[in-house]
Amino acid sequence: MVGAEQDALAVREQLFHQRVRECIICALLFASLYILCHFIITHFKKHTDFAAVHDDEDAAVNRIALGLCTFTLAVALGAVLLLPFSIISNEVLLSFPQNYYIQWLNGSLIHGLWNLVFLFSNLSLVFLMPFAYFFTESEGFAGSKKVCGPVAVPAVSPPCPRLLTNPAPQGIMARVYETSVVLLLLTLLVLGMVWVASAIVSNDAASRQSLYDLWEYYLPYLYSCISLFGVLLLLLCTPFGLSTMFTVTGKLLVKPRLLEDLDEQLSCTRLEEAAISRRISSGKAFCWLNLNVELLREQFFAIRSKRRKLELRHRASPWQRNLGYPLAMLGLLALTGISVLVVCFHVLELLLDDAAMPRGIQDASLGQVSFSIFGSFGAALQVILIFYLMVSSVVGFYSSPLFTRLLPERQDTPLTKIIGNCVSLLVLSSALPVFSRTLGITRFDLLGDFGRFNWLGNFYIVFLYNMSFAGLTTLCLVKKVSWAVQAELIRAFGLHKLPLPVTRRRPLSKPC
Fold first, then answer.
1. Which of 61, 160, 367, 452 is the most core-located residue (most Cβ within 10 A)?
2. Which string of DSSP letters, residue by residue, matches 137-206?
């Protein structure tokens, strides 16, 4: 009897230590992501919004909102790393099943990470980001504004009557009260709209009764709608981003001399810089010249920055010039082609096998079987494709005409634009696991509440989604590659320097 009690105590103690170890690992991972995201946001934020020169209260409010944005961006980055980390953990446990130093890497930890990402995504999208936006835009209610401060009142003016009574809430708390009321009204409005939409779609009494259970049904249903919107946004942005990646890579890398004449560009930039410098000098010397010196200075600095970039590219080695650009283009073309082939193969699987449908599981059994038929190599390829599709979706998102204004600028991004960027990135990244599993990029099943979305079990939605992705990606890729090859051939043969033919028509003669 004593031995059985000791065994039960040892099991409970082991479970307690395992739980504490998982909490410490999750806290360390999130702290690392938070610090990294803090440096990223600090690189883009406008420092004048956080300087306490004009108003200490506004600076404090902006700092609080910036902390919420950093938290949201850390959750978005965690959602991006969630599926690759799970795939790599499964392959590590499959390769080293009895290794003592990786015993902390188990299914309970992975399942806990999925649940935390789902919880923090809900929290950020529904509460934190709306609170941050309304908090920065709030001024406090009319009865709680700070109209009288501890300043000396002149003898001519009457004393402030509000100083004689009990002071109302002032400063930041007045903004907190107003933001809380506005957020509560917005929450009631959104929940009511979701309740009506669900009642119209389901049209039965059971669904309307289940909506009264806020935590078990209401919030997951709301997040299911947000996830569906994110997956549709990925469907539009990713094919466009896959084609734009070739242009972005071409701007970052040095092209071969056959495709790009850096000497001519550098000489033209130097001549333009010298011409603008002479115009600025003449405008200072002769006051009767009507020149906008400030505009000329901005142009001069922009051209000088362009000239320095061209000089750095001009000093590139022949290996980097003649080998780096073709290899990068071939790599992008190979990754895009593999993605399309995987999706087409998944379409055939959907037609032949019901097991290809995305589904959710509640128990993460890691280290038993590989999620790729090619073993570790296939798992590594899945991770690369997931990161590549995420980067392509972000590039396509910021390159689309609808969201170009959200593109952050270095040291010049206002706080409202930072909030918009964090919300957009969180919507894209939280839909990435569902997006990858729906397209068949990986066979890793969705864990926790990620697999409870209502539309995942609909065959027609999943099938049409795969077909749309394959068709849009192929169309964008063929159009981009054909136009790019045509433009590079015209530039390589010097046809772009030829004058355009001018057609002249003889005027019609007037009748006599």
1. 61
2. H----GGG-----S-PPPSSSPPPGGGTSPPPP-THHHHHHHHHHHHHHHHHHHHHHHHHHHHHHH-SHH
Name residue 286's amino acid. Answer: F
pTM over 0.85: no
74 three-state secondary structure: helix
The residue type of 57 is E
Q: What is the helix (H) or strand (E) element at residue 346, kind and residue range?
A: helix 325-352
| Residue recorded with tokens 């054909």 | 482
Q: How far is CA 14 from CA 8, 9, 18, 22, 33, in A?
A: 10, 8, 6, 12, 29
CA–CA distance, 81 with 30 (Å, rounded to integer) = 12
pLDDT tens-place values along the chain, 512 residues long: 566 767 777 778 888 888 888 889 989 999 999 999 999 999 888 776 666 545 577 788 888 889 999 999 999 999 999 889 988 888 888 888 777 778 788 878 888 888 888 888 888 888 889 998 888 888 777 665 554 444 444 444 444 444 434 443 456 788 888 888 888 888 888 777 777 766 676 655 555 555 555 555 666 666 677 778 888 898 888 888 888 888 888 777 766 655 566 677 777 888 887 887 777 776 654 555 556 667 777 787 888 877 777 776 666 676 766 777 788 888 888 898 898 899 999 888 888 877 777 765 655 567 777 778 888 888 899 999 999 999 999 999 998 888 888 888 888 888 889 999 999 999 999 888 888 888 888 887 777 667 666 667 778 888 898 899 988 888 887 877 666 666 666 666 666 555 555 444 544 444 43
Q: Which of 30, 25, 62 is nearest to 417 (CA)?
A: 62
Token representation of residue 318 = 């022949």
β strands within 207-291, DSSP E: none
Q: Could you give phi then psi for residue 498, rounded to 5 degrees?
A: -70, 140
Q: Which residues contact 153 (CB under 8 A, 6 or more apart)?
A: 159, 160
Quickly count: other Cβ atoms within 10 Å of residue 254's Cβ: 20
Cα dihedral 129→131→136→137 (10° resolution):
110
DSSP 373: T
CA distances from 152 to 145, 159, 166, 233 (A): 19, 10, 19, 57
Q: How far apart, in whole angstroms, are the C-alpha atoms of residue 2 and residue 511?
A: 123
Distance between CA atoms of residues 222 and 198, nearest Å: 10
